[in-house]
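Quick one:
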Amino acid sequence: MSKSSSPSTFETKLQEIGARAVHIGMVDPAGEFRDKLVSADKAVKLAEQGYPFCEVLYFWDIAENTYRDGSFVDRPAKLFDDTIRTYPFAPNTALCLADFYGEFGRRTPRNVCLAQLERAAELGFDVLAAFEFEFFVFDETPESMRAKQYRDLTHFAQGNRTYSLQTSALHGDLLSGLEQTMATMGVAIDAMHTELGPGCFEAPLSYASGIKAADDAMLFKNFARAYFARNDKTVSFMSKLSPKLSGQSGHLHLSLRDGAGNPVFADPSAPDGISATARHFLGGLLKFMPELLAMCSSTVNAYKRLVPGAWAPTAANWGVQNRTAAVRVINDQPASTRIEFRVPSADTNPYLALSMLLGAGLAGIRDGIEPPAGSAEDFYAARPAPEAAFPRDLHEASARLRASKTARVLFGDDFIDSFTENCDVEFAEYQRQVSEWEIRRYLGVV
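Output:
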């Protein structure tokens, strides 16, 4: 590593880790960590001089099939020294996030999220947030899954039960290894427990300030996949794997603090314990949630969970401590009063889920939007008002997002046009497929 008399912040952080190599991650629209391994010296130069990276990330789908013709030129990108962390799978190695900037950078989810955090700061708020992810683990490798054509897969911990001591007792070493992998990167897991279904787990992350909350969530999913693969297993964050299995959520908790660090969502004197600021945040979120839904639900599969009877919301509603609501207000203590956004699935892009939540909520605060009355009713059994109902699939959600004037004001035309194009490509590919369900239901009958 270079020995300049006044090392940069970037170089100093690598020296503190003792890094001789750096994994640079460009995060694509699907939330995948696109990795390049370089020497520490080269990383320092890239941090100083810029990091040209191919624009193809925004012109191909999740299967890496390009949907635009072009020369796929390099676009200017930069490395962020505040994202440097210890890489968990090799000694003397760091990881660092990078992203496009300038005109092309206006389409990237992380930049969109940073813009919302800046708007929160302009209003005098610090943002604290945390994701919690449910996921299935399989006793399968990528090769074995392909050999089985992704059918009749072997679940890990097949006798698993919700909150099961037995699963933890039997497989504690594997779970502890996952926690240690995350701790190495500074991703703190608040708790871990088994969930409903074979090999099903939930990992709520500890809250973090600002962009770190979304960075932590992105790193958790990417490095959980890598960790289990290193143990000859496969982890799935798909929203819905089977009609016989519960959907996998990616709930997002959020609170705001003022400049002095005081919580602004709590008001112990109010009947429901929440402040006018919290009400207005809820008002904006509930008003705009249906038209912004694609931002937190950007896969075809996500909409297989957002249906009646799947333990997931189907409309914009809220309630204090109501787990059937799209937005649950948690008000056990004033200091920890927060909202839980229960719409996102585990397959959500953390940057876009947080952007959607902040963008809509802050618009509610700015405009003083009052929410409808909260309720303790079972929203799963209720019939929603037409204006509160969610789009039924990715195609409808994408169309509503593209047509939303609010979305374009909050997130910019460049992002909305690029993102909805990607959604439309994904849905068009889905429409061309014929499912096993269709064959079993119609073949020889119609």
